Amino acid sequence: MDLSSINPILLLASLMVAATPILLAALGELVSERAGVLNLGVEGMMITGAICGFAIAVETGSPVVGFAAAAAGGALLSLLFALLTQLALANQVASGLALTLFGLGLSALLGQSYVGIRPPATAKLDIPLLGDIPVLGPVLFSHDWMVYFGLALTLAVWAALKYSRAGLILRAVGENHDAAHALGYNVVGVRILAILFGGACAGLGGAYLSLVRVPQWTEGMTAGAGWIALALVVFASWKAGRVLLGAYLFGGVTVLQLNLQAAGVDIPVEYLSMSPYLITILVLVILSADRSRAPGSLGRIFHASR
Amino acid sequence: MTFTRLLTGAALALGMATTAIAEDKTKVGFIYVGPIGDGGYTYEHNQGRLAVEEHFGDKVETVYQESVPEGADAERAITQMALQGADLIFTTSFGFMDATVNTAKKFPKVKFEHATGYKRADNLSTYSARFYEGRSVLGVIAGHMTKTNKIGYIGSYPIPEVIRGINAAYIEAKKVNPDVEFNIIWAYTWFDPAKEADAATALIEQGNDVILQHTDSTAPSAAAKAKGDVITFGQASDMAEYKPEPRVSSIIDNWGPYYIERVQAVMDGTWESTDTWAGIDDGMVVIGEITGPVPDDVKQEALAMRDAIASGEYHPFTGPLNKQDGSEWLKEGETADDATLLGMNFYVEGIKGDIPQ
Amino acid sequence: MLRLDRRPQPSRLWTLLTPPLAVLVTMIVGGALFAALGKDPVVAIETIFWEPLFGEFAFYYRPQLLVKAAPLILIAIGLSLGFRAGIWNIGAEGQYIIGALCGAGVALAAYPSESWLIFPGMVLAGALGGWAWAMIPAVLKVRFGTNEILVSLMLVYVAEQLLASMALGPMRNPEGMGFPGSRNLQQYAPAHNAELIAGTGMHWGVAAALIAVIFSYVLLNRHILGYHIRLTGEAPRAARFAGVRPGRLILFCLGASGALAGLAGMFEVAGPAGQVTIDFNVGYGFTAIIVAFLGRLHPVGILLAGLLLALTYIGGELAQSNMQLPAAAVQLFQGMLLFFLLAVDVLVHFRLRWRRAEAA
Fold this sequence. Notes:
The complex is a heterotrimer of chains A (306), B (357) and C (360). Chain A is mainly α. Chain A has helices at 8-34, 42-60, 63-87, 92-110, 136-140, 145-163, 165-175, 177-182, 187-213, 225-235, 240-262, 269-289.
């Protein structure tokens, strides 16, 4: 056992990378849940984003275009969910699960000719002076631009929900859709936009996996990241800042677990792998005790003529 | 068992029917555990299937089913192929063992081949590759190439197959570099690119500059590429997209020749139930091109090791060898028997850490 | 402008018409997909829907339909009770795993005893295991008001990790050459959930599923508890006035669905699957949620939905191995079927109408 071989600076830096895909997907899901829509199809949207981003990046040679395509792909898939749940008024839980199934199949089909290819590299942001700062430099300022995009998005979502008029309407729709409707807001329209945003973010998260973190395309490569993103939203009690914290915790436990193993620490791996989920449950219990709770209309079907 | 009789009857009837229609076409089925697009284990089995098609052309018809879950679903998939008139069925994952055994009982006229298992019958062969022979060759390269004397190893699950590979690589690495140290991470998955990337990153950040892997994705190579100055090896398939470095060589599962040989045997009517455990000399295990920063003398030494194993001159597990706890395992000049290797659940002396139980 | 008007009563006509309609639309769109992949769409559709039922080897596939549908139905019936009352157990997959582990645990602990008590003991342990796993979200919900959707979902991952460690550790077959996975219960007669009548696919799990369908039908239509469940789902406030105690209802609904999911896992591990392995669970717990909704949370509907889904699984496998259709295409096809089934459901409760656009 040699704990000294673990370098905390590098650990923190790789934690930020590990957390980015689930952070992006969770932010999107947060927005749609705040609008009162529970979309369990995150995994399907993520993997669709992963292949769309990968394919387009390979074809065009530009990761930026790839990420844009991933967002479009994820949003397009989520449009199916929006049509089902908002216009055809189908149950959200069942539709979300169907979406995951659909997305996994679709991505595998689209990706058949992209196995074993290396994507173009995503540029690292080289910030001249900041990157040289000892300790903080490598931790904070040596990543690819998507990591910063994720952080910026967190800030944007937080501010938009808290201070903007659009955020207020979104929250009103999520808390009580009947009241929001009575006030003259277009509940269905707001929700469709929120779902599309969720799909786009999930797509970006997926593309981060296939273009940066792994980077390659293989069937089923998200391997459950979408479900973790779902858990993250609850863990964060529907607050953007806490999503970031949660993503780092989740990413951190995994990275730390592997680092401890590499350092030869004798730990029961399978029990440590359970810990993020157990911690989430614990947090859920604590949160429910302090009366912080889910959006009032979460998962409920809205029909104007009620 | 009326059901068994019913099935057998149907199979017999069908067998006659198909032979009448397609006299010269041999139907060969493949059951895969993963998708053929996994770029690793299942991908290589499918390459073997394609090699069969290529070799026999019109004389053979191949069918496959991918992503078959273990258990009841596997048994149905295998039965289905037998019912549809397959003459020979390859089930390519350990988890299909009991399902294959059950199906083989129901269809005595159909030939079955199960990969990596240990249960046989008159119409059921087993086959597997001695991947540890390849690991020995990689071990030579790894031992020479490490500058930090720390070699990282990403294991999937703590099972004999993986433990054997770790031991084989360690023995050779230790011989060429007595200071070498293995750091092992158990990923508890065969395939989760993100986790594999994280594992590789963790190993690299702790100073391991050579990464060996027994999981199936190219993610560790990509992580090594990103970090620079680290070498990796392809697993299951060549992973040529990471040539010439960080991937400096690879162990390739080459099933094609075996599949062709067995299909030929069915065509000739000479098929018999066998237990094949083939290695480098039969071409089932192939060492991928040695590239990149590996100096020529190291490359020659590795190739010499490969040839010595192939010719039977050298056995990767030759004494004197002790187990991890220091107790004697193999005496001077003694080589390990296959039974011990198959069930290997201990590290050799020098490897640190415990195998998770 | 197309408008939806809520029907005063769900339409009986459309209740019966929508499922075939959805299947038909799926066949058309799916057929187009298969054609785009270069396969004959008619043959593909026929292989998926016709072959398993009436094809040459239907004698084998019909029983397999039962084997595949039984766990789906058993779990979905349990879930539907809670879903009707607005109690969302999404973690049946975890309860299924724990049920299987408990059931198999009894058998493996008893090995090699020949006592007839083993199988009943396994049934009991399986049901109890699933029940206990579901009690975690239930108690947290009752005691702290914690969201049961998420707790039950989280517990699926915990159960999966537990499964892996059991298959590699305590439950590993000592005669298995060190490979992961337990002894095969199919080869241990007192624990084997064998076919009750050879060649029919009828094992105890199928019997249990049928019993559950009948039981749930009676409960929902004839029993006061069923009435309370329906009332809570449809009019929570009224239910409170009618003297329904929500806490007890939550404990009952989650407990019942957990026990049934646990039973399904136990029957599966003792019968068709045979072993505790790392990848023992294949998603029945999640698919059952879809089955429950496709069956409109009605026991008979669930029975039919379970059989339909099993048909697409088996037919889809056939299409794969006969026509070399990619597994992904079959998955996509199933996704489509679910989408359409969910989408046409709107016609049951709503009337489509053309109206002139008007200010809201």
